[in-house]
Amino acid sequence: MAVPKAPESASKLVPAPPPYSEQEHIWDAARETLPNSIPGGAKVIAIMGPTGTGKSTFISKLAGREMKIGHHLHSCTDQVEEVPCKVGDQYVILVDTPGFNDTHRSDTEILTALADWMKSSYQDKMFLSGIIYLHAISDTRMTHSSLQNLRMFRKLVGDHNLKNVILATTKWSVTPLEDGLRREKDLTSEKGFWNTMMAAGSVVRQFENSAASAQSLVEEILHLQEKIVPKIQKEVMDGKKLADTEAGAYIEEAIARLQTKHEEEKQALLEEVQRARSEHNRNMQKALEAERERLDKRMAERVEEQRQLHMTTNEALQMRKGQCFLRAGDFDTPACTQGQERLLALELEMPNMQGEG
Predict the structure, then answer these.
(1) Is residue 91 a contact partner of residue 44, using CB atoms and an 8 Å limit?
(2) At what angle do helices 246-278 and 282-309 cross, to 10 degrees?
(3) Is 171's pLDDT higher than 50?
(4) Angle, nearest 10°, between helix axes 337-354 and 20-35?
(5) Nearest one of 174, 170, 178 to 208, comparing CA atoms
(6) CA 342/CA 10 separation, integer angstroms
(7) pLDDT greater than 80 at residue 332
(8) Is 226:100 a contact under the CB 8 Å cutoff?
(9) Could you report the per-residue pLDDT of 216-265, keeping only the tens digit for each?
C-alpha cells in the first residue's frame, strides 16, 4: 500500500514521516489527541473572499508555513481546509474557504462544501469567533465576480452576524497608494458597497502582507466575546435543503437565468445550422454542431446543479467523487490521500505549537 507523503510544510517542522506501520500508530493516537487539543480550546476564524484576493497568503503569513497559492486561472482552495496555528497563548483554527465564481467548480459545489463544513463544525461545537473577508484593493473596480462573492457572503453569514466581520483590503504593495486609498474610500462611502455592512458593525482594515499584520487582524477577532452561528449554518442544522437556504435560492435564481440564456443561444444556433445546411456549407455546419454540443453540455450541467440544490447536504456530498472532508475525530470513513496528509500535518504540528509561547 502506498505511503502518503507528509506535506512539505510539515517536513520543515519535524523529521520525515515514519514508515506506514508506524503511521498507523499515529492515526490511533490522533483519535484521542486531536479532538481535545484542536477544537476544544481553539478559537475558529473563517477566511473568506473571492478567488485571488490572498486568502492562502494571509494564512501562510500567520501559520508560518506555505499554503498552496494560486497565481494562474485556477483557484487553489478547492475545499474547506482547517489550518491550526497559535497567536500568543491562544490556539487558533483558520478556516480557508473557496471563493464563488470559481474557474473549475460550480457555485453549487462550493456551497455544498461550505454547508458540509458548517454542519460538521456545529456538531463538533466548533463555533466561529469571527470572519475576515478579503478584497483585493488592486482591482480597479468592483468586478462581477467580486460583487457576486460579496452578495453570497452576506446571504451565508446573515446581517445580524456582521459585527464579527473584518473587511480587509489586500494587495496594497502592488497598488499605487493614492489609487488604493481612493478605492477604499469608494467602498466605505455612503453609497459604497461596504456601507451597509459597516452600519451593521463590520470594521474595515488593511492587510499589509506581513505576519504582524495578519496577527493584528486575528487578535481583533479574538477580542470579540460573542461567537456566531452563520445563517447558512443555522439553515442547514434546521434540516433545510440547499435550495431552501437564502444562499441556495440565490444560486438557483442565477441558474434559471443561465438556462433561459442557454435556450435562446440554442435556438439561434439551430437557425444557423439550418441556414448552413441550406447553403451546403459543411464546414460551417460542422462548427455550429460542435458549438451546439458544448451548449448542450453546459445546459446539462445547470440541470445537475439544480438537482443537487434540492438534495440534502448529505445527499449532495454523495455526488462529489474524489473529495474527502476528514475532520478531527471522524476517522471511520475511508480517507483519500489528501485527507490523510491533512490529518498527518495537524498531528505533526500540534507538538510544535505546544512548545511555542
Answers:
(1) no
(2) 160
(3) yes
(4) 60
(5) 170
(6) 10
(7) no
(8) no
(9) 999 999 999 899 999 999 999 999 999 999 999 999 998 988 888 888 88
The total number of residues written for the chain in this structure = 357
Q: Which residues of 121-140 are buried (b: 16+ CB within 10 A; e: fewer)?
A: bbebebbbbbbbbbbbbbbe
Angle between the N-to-C axes of helices 144-157 and 246-278, in degrees from 0 to 180, rounded to the nearest 10: 150
DSSP labels, 45-97:
EEEE-STTSSHHHHHHHHHTS------SSS-S--S-EEEEEEETTEEEEEEE-
Q: Write the DSSP assignment of 294-353 as a string of letters.
A: HHHHHHHHHHHHHHHHTS-HHHHHHT-TT-----TT--SSPPPHHHHHHHHHHHHHHHHH
Residue 272 has a CB neighbour count (10 Å cut-off) of 16
In angstroms, the CA 115 to CA 109 distance is: 10
- Torsion 163-188-252-124 (CA) sign: negative
Residue 136 DSSP class = E
